[in-house]
Structures are given as C-alpha cells and as structure tokens.
Design goal:
Elements: H1 6-30, H2 39-58, E1 63-64, E2 67-68, H3 69-90, H4 108-136, H5 146-171, H6 175-188, H7 203-209, H8 213-226, H9 236-258
Antiparallel strand pairs: 1-2
Helix pairs in contact: 1-4, 2-3, 2-4, 3-4, 3-5, 3-8, 4-5, 5-6, 5-8, 5-9, 8-9
Amino acid sequence: MGTETPFRRSLRIQMRVLHALLMREIITRYGRHNIGFAWLFAEPMLFTIGVTALWTLVHDTGTSHHINVIAYSIVSYSTVLIWRNTIGRCTLAVEPNTALLFHRNVRVVDLFFSRIILEIAGATISLVVLLTLFIVAQIIPPPADPLYMLYGWALLAWYAVSMGLLVGGLCEYSELVERFWHPIAYFQLPVSGAFAMAAWLPPGLRDIVLLFPLPNCVEVFRLGYFGDAVKAYYDVPYVASILLVMTFVGLWVIRDISKKVEPQ
C-alpha cells in the first residue's frame, strides 16, 4: 500500500474530531436516558405535528388553494425548523466549549459545524419520517419530484449553514448580536416563504419578498413536492451568489475570532 497523503490524513483526523464533537453534543444535550438521541428528530416532529394540527383547524382539512393543507403545513414548517434551529444553536456556541480548544486538533470552526450537522440532521430525519408516515397512511400524496425536493432542501441547508456561521461568529464579538437575533428570527417568518407561497402575493410585494434568499429556497423545495399543482417563483443563481458571499463572510468572521479565543 502507498503512503497516505497529508490531505487524506488531515481529512481523516477532521472526521474523527467532528464525530467526537457530535457524540459529545448529543450526550450533553439529550443524555443517555429515556429516548436519548431520538429527541434529535422527535422534538422537531412534535413541533411540526402541532403546527399541522393548528393549520387543519383553521383551513379546510381537504385542500387549500387546490393543494393538501396537511402536506403544505408539514413541508412548509419543516423549512422553518432547519434554519431557525441551526442558526439558533450557533449563537454563543464557542463560550461553553472553550475547554475543548486545549486539544490541538479541535478548532473553533469545528464547534460550529458539529452543531450545524446535528440540527440539519434532526430536521431532515423529522421531515422524512413524517412524510413517510403520512404518505403510507394515504393522508397526503407522495412528492411529485423527490430529486427537486432534495435540491431545494440542499439550498435551505446552505442558507442555514451560511447564516449560522455568520450570526454565530458575530455573537462572539458581542452578546447583543445573540439578543437581537431572536426577535429578528421572528420578524423573518413573514418573509420566509413558509406560510404563504409567492404566487399568493401581489406582484409588487412578491418582488420585495423574493429579494431575500430564504423564500427562493422554500419555493424550490415546495415545487419539488407539489409539482405542477403550484406556481413557483425563484432565482437560483441569484440565491447561490448571495449564499456564497454569506458563507465566505461567515468563515472569515470565524477565522478572525479563532485568533482571539483562548482556551479556559
């Protein structure tokens, strides 16, 4: 066998570091008792089921705007969970874990990515399990284009990653960022695209809403599920360019704070 390249060796070490941080995060957050790790996806499932129940009470239980209201609420609220939970967990992610930085191979960026991976995994498992259960029970129809759904979900995950890195990094400069983020997250809900499709909005308001990258991602994801039953409005190149810049800035911020953080 040939000698292992430095890149492969570094990648293998990095994977071990992330795996260890993920296991530590799971045990710290959920413990070893009751259902333990299952809370990772059980908790977002409960939130989604609760929102779905409320939607069925205030809307026609059959269809709304010619689409299944239960399917709409599951698909739409899952898009909220992936970015809200991921970004929320990235706020003040460094301070409680500074002791881990004594280990040579643990870096500040690893602390962020371990939390990001965990939250995206939880939201994804929750969505897959709920859709599978409701489809098997014939309560909702199967997705029109699962691959396009995956495409939209990947865009949503990219948004969550870029915003998580950016907001989480800025929180290390000042705790005020963390305090301001929570109300900003709530104010973002009306323009997130989760509760109203772009096609339902007046053209002028629609153009303003689609200036934000998040509703574009949601439109792509929703189109993958409902297909021709909905009319989607989105601009993927525009969104990709914004997310690329946000990711770069987020990584730059984390690199900068890494120089200032000292293990305790």
